[in-house]
Write the structure tokens for this entry.
Amino acid sequence: MTDGDRQDIEDLKAISGGSAATVDRAMTALYRRHGGWLRRFFSASRLDWATTDDLIQEVFKKVFRSASSYRGEAPASAWMRIIAKRVLLSYLEKLKTDPLANPVPEPDFAPNGAVDTDSPAETPREPAEPTAGMPLPQRLRIEACVSRQLQVFARDEPLRAEALRRKFDGWSDEEIADLLERPSVGAARQFLHESRKKVRTYMEPCRELLREERP
Amino acid sequence: MNHPPTPDTPERDGLSEYDESDRQFFERLADRKAQVVDPQVAAEADALRSAFERESVREAARLAERDAADPQHQDRLLERILGEARQEGLRHNVARPSFWAWLRGAGSAVQPRWGAVGALSFALLIGVGLVRLWVPSEDGGPYGEPMVTRGAFAEQVLQDPRPRQRAEQLQKSMAGLGIDARIFKREAVFFVTYDLAPDELAARNKELEAMGLKPAVGANRVQIDPR
């Protein structure tokens, strides 16, 4: 057990039964030690700044409420990670049932293929390999199309989009099973397989563009 | 009846459709150098990976801009968290303020200047009531335990003209003595019964007789006079 772990235990004890000043001090110490990785954890889901703040706050609220139930059998960071995971899952579930909470921006390209290149959201920072040899406008159209379809997919299927993002980030199937609370690695793979099938349907209009332009 | 297996359930583990194409697709999604045999799978994975890359770069840039533009942000979030913790703490701990704080508040609400005097008077009244209840009268309780005095006991039980009410009063009073009594009615006559050991029964029945009640001899019951 590291010094940080021991300090966490002390702080959680203080939160569960201390005076207001002690609780403030302990919460501040916990935030200083764990706020950074919590922000990185939520940022990996490409959540906006304000939502990330809200979710971090939610985690600390739950920590405050359940500090007395923490038994110190595992490091507090592992315990907080479970809380953070549940907070994220619950947020993603809520997005699925309330799509208005996650609106998809207006398209940056017109149906006739004109691209709004002023939009910083769609400015390509790193040209992608499959479109590298194409004329610029066509490449931008494809990228804009895929990005937008991905946003629609993420709005309709937030959990599946999350699974694909984590795969893109190089997470293993075991890690994804743990994050999404799938009962087994096989179930997580099944979920990934179905997510891939779903995202393909969303990519259909963009696939046409790719097909048109491919030599 | 057998239901078809639903997606994402462990029952499907053995029949997983996750196949070689999926493996190649996800490898390509995570690592652009991964070899993929099917060009269609490679194109899909590449298009999606490019979109994720742009999304990732965009979000990282936004976060960096935000951090640079607002270096105090972390402190403000901490303040928010502490503020909420205080609110939670208030809800849990201060929602039930101490009796004295409540009394002072109640008194002040009526007449701020006289709040403290009012609170003190009220406390005195409650105190006197408690003393009256818990300290035995001159002749004392039957067994020395804090109780409703014998005079008050007989008064409550005997004065009410309604037999059921008198039975209930007796039951309550006996509960005050630590005796678990029950009421039953037979042919319009109310009885209060109780379970006492034989040695205690005789002494208790004597007490009840002295109060003008009619406990059955050697039995665990008192008949309530119908009047």
Remarks:
- The two ends of chain A are 59 Å apart (CA to CA).
- Chain A touches chain B through 59 residues (CB under 8 Å).
- Confidence is low (pLDDT under 50) at residues 107-128 of chain A.
- Residues 20-43 of chain A form the longest helix (24 residues).
